[in-house]
Amino acid sequence: FILQLHSNSDKGDGSVKYILTGEGAGTIFIIDDTTGDIHSTKSLDREQKTHYVLHAQAIDRRTNKPLEPESEFIIKVQDINDNAPKFTDGPYIVTVPEMSEMGTSVLQVTATDADDPTYGNSARVVYSILQGQPYFSVDPKTGVIRTALHNMDREAREHYSVVIQAKDMAGQVGGLSGSTTVNITLTDVNDNPPRFPQKHYQLYVPESAQVGSAVGKIKANDADTGSNADMKYTIINGDGSGVFSISTDKETREGILSLKKPLNYEKKKSYTLNIEGANTHLDFRFSHLGPFKDVTMLKVIVGDVDEPPLFTMPSYVMEVYENAKIGTPVGTVTAHDPDAANSLVRYFIDHNTEEDRYFTIDASTGTIKTAKIFDREETPWYNITVAASEIDNPGLVSHVPVGVRILDVNDNPPELARDYDVVVCENTKPGQVIQTITATDKDNSENGARFHFSLDEGLSLNPNFTLRNNEDNTASILTRRRRYSRTTQDIYYLPVLISDGGVPPLSSSSTLTIRVCACERDGRVRTCHAEAFLSSAGLSTGALIAILLCIVILLAIVVLFITLRRSKKEPLIISEEDVRENVVTYDDEGGGEEDTEAFDITALRNPSAAEELKYRRDVRPEVKPLSRHHPSSSLDSIDVQEFIKQRLAEADLDPSVPPYDSLQTYAYEGHRSEAGSISSLDSATTHSDQDYNYLGDWGPEFKKLAELYGEIEPERTT
């Protein structure tokens, strides 16, 4: 029961009816329409709905008319402690550095209570720790978790599970509670120095170990993790600090001992090393726990190994003169057994390349000799490999490279640097330099760097050219005449003697070919006699083929013409009964102008001399042709074209001609010109006295014409 509605109009006789509307009416709240009592049908939850708004009205049961206006009332739900506190974000995972001060804040947890915080203590929450003491504590009001001990060591214990409880009703008896778990992990700090497990170590290394190779490992332990355990190893002292080196493997944090220099058991059998391992990341808050480094001693014992022979030098360079006789000594290599046994050594050459076969070596002494005669200009350097092995143990072999330099001797005479094309102009002056020549020598600079040029002294003095030695390994060719003529002599030969500065000096003779050419005023070569002849007389292959092809075509035409002449003539008309048109080919040649039997061609040569039209003479007409009369005045003025048209009309209208085609040729040339002939056949044959010197100023296109007329003029004068 919640409440009762009552109207002043209600007399208790049941005539008043109560009606309830609004939130929850009929479902959550029901009303007795006679008494007005309101009851709830189910439990109410304040956390879901705090109040309900309802409307009540009294009406006449018989007429259903309202007796009073509608009234509104509110039902408020009063809170009770029916909700326990809850941690919405749990469980929690959190970290805190090890060795933290007591009271260091770790995490703040918060619990919520759905009850009404304004009514009583239903929503008043207090916090307590159920698990995790004595390491951690929690503030009852704020829920802040803090460390409860000094210097919590991660290396002793790393993980903690703390259970926090939240209880309402201010923690009183009867209050509701909820709990959550907080997992706390201690993070590492560098509070532990590195330590070697032992203070003394011993390592065996054979003397055959390669330089740069790893020969051993060593490690210092550090209880810390991550970067706090990073280590660096160094060799701080000891007699092996110059022979060995140490580096740090960042993955395994081990010290890798490597060899810096080769070991020799016969010289030193052991080394002592002091190795230090130190942290690279220090935390000065814990420096009082240090020092954060440790030192150990390592003794390295060198093991004896049978080694191959050792050469006295890592490589050899030897020299020998070219052209030396076979068997000439070049040099000697020396090797010895580094072991205490000091076995005898045998030498030999590895014949891996062709160059190795050019030398021999004495197996006992190591003396290298030549096996061929060398030419420095062909190969100036040879590389061979000499091997040495112990006689007692031939399997142990060592090698050494040997370079042999071939020394030069003066065995090559100098020669011209190239084939010179020397040209001299016809209008050159005496003493003019026409060419500068140089020489080369296959020998090196000591035997060929200095050249001397001269003319052959065994010949008579050359009247045309001379040579001047420039003292700089070049020479100049000079002219000795004022003028040269291509017509007189177009090529000259000049012997030149070249000697080098070697010991003994060598010399050679070369001949220069000098061509005489016509040049421009500025010295440019215009043409040379030999080139002009070749250019005028030479024919290309294409031109020769064209000429031969024309000759073949002409021969074919002649043969065809002769064949047609010898062929049998066909009759002009086959038979009298055959009235069809026939085209007959015949090749009779007329008798020329003197033949007057076939046609009278006087009219063809001159229409004004034409007589009265005649009948055809080759066919006898059966009927007379149409008569035509022309006055003589018209014959004098008739035109050739008109004359031809008349002849064509007669041929078409003449009924006496057979049905075959007739060909008539008209070749009237017209009257003689009054101007006379322009032919040069009747010209005078005497030469003109005209001066042709002006042709030389017309440019290079008229040079040849000017030369021709220039040569005719002196001949005519002579």
UniProtKB/TrEMBL annotation:
Residues in Cadherin domain copies: 7-87, 88-196, 197-311, 312-416, 416-533
GO terms under cellular component: adherens junction; catenin complex
Membrane topology, record value: Single-pass type I membrane protein
Alphabetical list of SUPFAM superfamilies matching this protein: Cadherin-like
Pfam families cross-referenced by the UniProt entry: CADH_Y-type_LIR (PF01049), Cadherin (PF00028)
Transmembrane segments: 543-564
UniProt KW keywords: Calcium, Cell adhesion, Cell membrane, Cleavage on pair of basic residues, Glycoprotein, Membrane, Metal-binding, Repeat, Signal, Transmembrane, Transmembrane helix
Gene Ontology biological process: adherens junction organization; calcium-dependent cell-cell adhesion via plasma membrane cell adhesion molecules; cell migration; cell morphogenesis; cell-cell adhesion mediated by cadherin; cell-cell junction assembly; homophilic cell adhesion via plasma membrane adhesion molecules
Domain of life of the native organism: Eukaryota
Localization (cell): Cell membrane
SMART domains per UniProt: CA (SM00112)
Cited InterPro entries: Cadherin (IPR039808), Cadherin-like_dom (IPR002126), Cadherin-like_sf (IPR015919), Cadherin_CS (IPR020894), Cadherin_Y-type_LIR (IPR000233), Catenin-bd_sf (IPR027397)
UniProt xrefs under CDD domains: Cadherin_repeat
Function: Cadherins are calcium-dependent cell adhesion proteins.
Protein's name according to its UniProt entry: CAD18 protein
Species of origin: Pomatorhinus ruficollis (streak-breasted scimitar babbler)
Lineage of the organism: Eukaryota, Metazoa, Chordata, Craniata, Vertebrata
